[in-house]
Amino acid sequence: MKNIFTLALIVLTLSSCQKETHDFTLNATIKGLKKGVVYLERQQDSSMVVLDSLVINGNSNFQLHSDLSEPEVLFLRLDKNDSDEGVIVFFADKGTTEITSDIKNFNFLSIIKGSRQQAVLDEYLLMMSKFNNKNLDMIKENFEAQIKNDSVKVNSIEEGFNNLLKRKYLYTINFAVNNKNSEVAPYLAISEIPNTSVKFLETIYEALDENIKQSMYGRELKSKIEERSKSN
Question: According to CATH, what is the number of the domain 2-114?
Fold first, then answer.
């Protein structure tokens, strides 16, 4: 009886010493963060699901974990117990991702290092920032033209807006096709240009490598194409 008790105690001790393993680990540093709650989330249908969370009390370095069956876009949300929340969107894969940001510019000054999908997404976002800067310049020009009642200028800027949108869509389509071996390609199709013509969505889908077609975002893109085709 004593031997059985001793054996059970050893097994219990060994079990308690085992490190918990996870598919995905997020190592993050938010400079200046003293208090608040951080959440690791995923989007499921139209709602957000919390995968892990942590109360921050004085330490701006923290870890969050999750199971992850395949590459997926996740969200790091910061709640500072006031009306000012922030969200960082990143492409996660099995292993470790590192995020560094600042409490004052949580959404905009984040540096993300981790998955190869994130590196592809960063390349796309860099070009999108140039499109967005151009769009802001045109908004300013349009405002100034309206103040001056310069209808010719206003019409010209409106045409410029339309051309810029077309260029953005075409860039996204070409980028997705050129990155057909990455889960980022179908993700961009369904998140950035979901309202483009079915023909362009089909072009992206048909270009995808077979394993990407079978990925979560590949399957979602196929469903969207089928749904759009039925409604036309």
Answer: 2.60.40.1120
